[in-house]
Design brief:
This protein is mainly alpha-helical. The chain has 2 domains: 30 residues; 116 residues, Arc Repressor Mutant, subunit A (Orthogonal Bundle). It has a 3-stranded antiparallel sheet with strand order 1-3-2, covered by helices on one side. α3 packs across α5. The longest helix has 13 residues. The N and C termini lie far apart (80 Å). The model has no long low-confidence stretch (mean pLDDT 85).
Length: 168
């Protein structure tokens, strides 16, 4: 391999180099993120999956896919139920649960329910603050946040200074 080609490959992101190496025809079969219609899922979302039921994941993913770049969407409960193959009565409890878990906010106005998709870090911090995420799980979450160069979720430990009394 000549030096110019080696430098060119070294400057490419690792995953792009691996894709070219292992999946040489990938260009024609993958979603191009530069083209409209791509919705990214935050990496930290994977740390929430164990705290969500399968229907909650489906509803949340649906709302992510419906949201504008401003993270707002307003499908009806009927639309959500129809597109997910759920009963209308089954959708509402999952939406309520996602709100309680701080993954979405809702607002009712003008006869319509509006949804705001929250940053998953809000939900993760809520789970840390309420003690749902602790111990090894919290350690791994902080490790991932650090790798992503994001704020960690652990609360700094308060230093307790013991006053020593000297007796004469």
């Amino acid at each position: 391999m000549n030096e110019t080609k080696a430098k060119s490959q070294a400057s490419e992101p690792r995953d792009l180099r691996l894709r070219k190496q292992f999946f040489p025809n990938a260009e024609g079969v993958i979603f191009d993120t530069a083209v409209k219609g791509y919705v990214p899922m935050p990496i930290l979302m994977r740390k929430l999956l164990r705290h969500l039921t399968p229907p909650e994941v489906r509803v949340l993913m649906y709302l992510h896919l419906r949201a504008s770049k401003y993270r707002v969407c307003y499908p009806t409960i009927e639309e959500i139920a129809e597109e997910l193959g759920l009963n209308r009565k089954n959708v509402t409890p999952h939406i309520t649960s996602l709100e309680k878990k701080k993954l979405i906010m809702t607002h009712f106005a003008k006869g319509r329910k509006y949804f705001l998709i929250l940053d998953p870090r809000v939900a993760l911090q809520h789970l840390v603050d309420t003690g749902v995420i602790a111990g090894d799980e919290l350690f791994l979450l902080d490790e991932l946040a650090g790798e992503l160069k994001q704020k960690t979720f652990s609360r700094p430990k308060k230093l307790v200074v013991a006053a020593s009394v000297r007796r004469a």
